[in-house]
Amino acid sequence: MYKSSQSLDTLVSKDNSQSKWWRNSQYRTIFIFLTIILALLIIILSLMLKYMVFAPMKPETIVTTIPDGTHQWKWSATHKNMNVGRKFHTASVLKNGKVLVIGGFYHDILNSVELYDPLKDSWSSAISMTYGRYMHTASLLTDGTVLVIGGNDGYTGQNSTELYDPSTETWTTVDSMNHGRIKHTASVLKNGKVLVTGGKHGDDYHRSAELYDSSTKGWTSAGYMSDARVEHTATMLNNGKILLTGGHNLRALNTAELYDPSTGIWTTTGSMNHARYSHTASLLTNGKVLVAGGLNSNGALDSAELYDPSTEIWTTTANMNYTRWYATASVLANGNVMVTGGANDHVLNTVELYDPSVQTWTTVHNMNGARHLHTASVLKNDMVIVIGGRNSDITLNTAEFYSLV
Ligand SMILES: *[C@@H]1O[C@H](CO)[C@@H](O)[C@H](O)[C@H]1NC(C)=O
Ligand SMILES: *[C@@H]1O[C@H](CO)[C@@H](O)[C@H](O)[C@H]1NC(C)=O
Question: What is the C-alpha separation between 87 and 389, in angstroms, rounded?
């Protein structure tokens, strides 16, 4: 009896213990299941809050991100390449932010046009020009259209001019210049007209200049420079005058001259310390003009000079670390000037930044590929995109951009 009662007791107490709900395996399973469901709900809810409620309130941090050791400025290839390699082409940043890449030379002159969309990192074809051309110019006019002027037609400098309208994505042929030109300059003046200077037609080095008027879509003479100039530079100063520097007409030039749009008069100004052509010229935020590199009878140059419009005097500034010609120079939003690529006895992938406040050059991250005869355009957020050009023997269809990654 005792024995059985004890065993019953044990049994009862065992039953009792089993009746505590958390010791019941069925309830335990349900409890764990509910806990998991609850945890999942909390995770889903927090994700929804993060993406639907908090995310839109986060400011765009691309520009404001400070390099902190983990982020740095680097060159990255665009997702895809252009359809065709191009050198001596042009690249214009349109008002909608896209980059219009026009013509150039591959195995033959190109009339094809491609558009790069920085937001989608994608290339698309645009309608071709009527005339193929390289060594032409392309100017973004105040109404957002792009005026393409002259360039080599495969034989000599052509006089044809075409206008691209981004809103309709179409080309219209407008009046031709009075002279065919390659390696000329084109500057959009403050009054909206376009000043074209110099360049070459056959063996003629032009001293002439012409003005394009958007309202008549026609050309008039803009007088004569003191020197014929090819592969020179033209920079608009803050006072609206155009500064022409260097170039060549069988010999390299150190001379410079000014065009005043309000009077239509040309005047000579201070000469550079070095003759140079195929160099770069950039208007700095302090109003001075920086010229860098180029070529003369001594070869490629690393020298750089500053023009002060108030004194009309050139002063030398620090040399670049590399001699280079047919490089590009871009003024960044912070006022620094970025020089990319170019060539000396070989094609360069090096990149240097000029800081006007301390007047020094700093070598920064190299491009992935060496290139000259390329273009460089400043995009939003201080990104710079370099497009096409030539490596030692290859005409490039690649593009790469410099951005904070
Ligand atoms: C432009 O060049 C073409 C071809 O050389 C020529 O026929 C035409 O007359 C020129 N136009 C002007 C306005 O000079
Ligand atoms: C300058 O260029 C030389 C080669 O010409 C190179 O060895 C050196 O590292 C460069 N200096 C900087 C600061 O990039």
Answer: 4
Query: How many C-beta atoms lie closer than 10 Å to residue 63's C-beta?
Result: 12
User: Which residues, 6+ apart, have CB-to-CB distance to 304 below 8 Å?
Assistant: 290, 291, 292, 293, 316, 317, 318, 319, 320, 354, 361
Exposure string (b/e) for 242-275, b if CB count within 10 Å is 16 or more?
A: bbbbbbbbeebbbbbbbbebeeeebeebebbebb
pLDDT at 124 over 80: yes
Interval 226-242 mean pLDDT: 98
The torsion of the CA quartet 267, 273, 279, 284, rounded to 10 degrees, works out to -70
Residue 109 · residue 132 · CB < 8 Å:
yes
Task: Give Rg (Cα) of the chain.
Answer: 32
Mapped onto helix, strand or coil, the DSSP state of residue 375 is strand
Query: Residues 269, 274, 278, CA angle at the centre, nearest 5°?
Result: 95
Using CA atoms, how far residue 283 sits from 63, 195, 212, 236, 383, in Å, is 23, 17, 23, 7, 19
Task: Give the separation between CA 236 and CA 190, rounded to whole angstroms.
Answer: 9
Ligand 2 atom with least separation from CA of 363:
14
What are the tens digits of pLDDT across the range 235-251? 999 999 999 999 999 99
- Give the residues across from 360 on adjacent strands: 355
Identify the CA nearest to 110 among candidates 400, 392, 388.
Answer: 388
Q: What is the pTM of this model?
A: 0.83
* Alpha-carbon gap, residue 82 to 249, rounded angstroms: 35
Q: What is the mean pLDDT of the chain?
A: 89
Strand partners, 28: none
Query: What are the tens digits of pLDDT across the range 69-84?
Result: 567 889 999 999 999 9
Q: % helix / strand / coil in the chain, to the nearest 5?
A: 15, 40, 50
Query: Is 301:280 a contact under the CB 8 Å cutoff?
Result: no
**Ligand 1 neighbours by CB, cut-off 6 Å:** 159, 176, 178, 180
Mutate to test the pocket of ligand 2, among 355, 363, 367 (most ligand atoms within 8 A of CB): 363
pLDDT of residue 38: 80
363 C-beta closer than 6 A to ligand 2: yes
Nearest atom of ligand 1 to the alpha carbon of 160 = 1
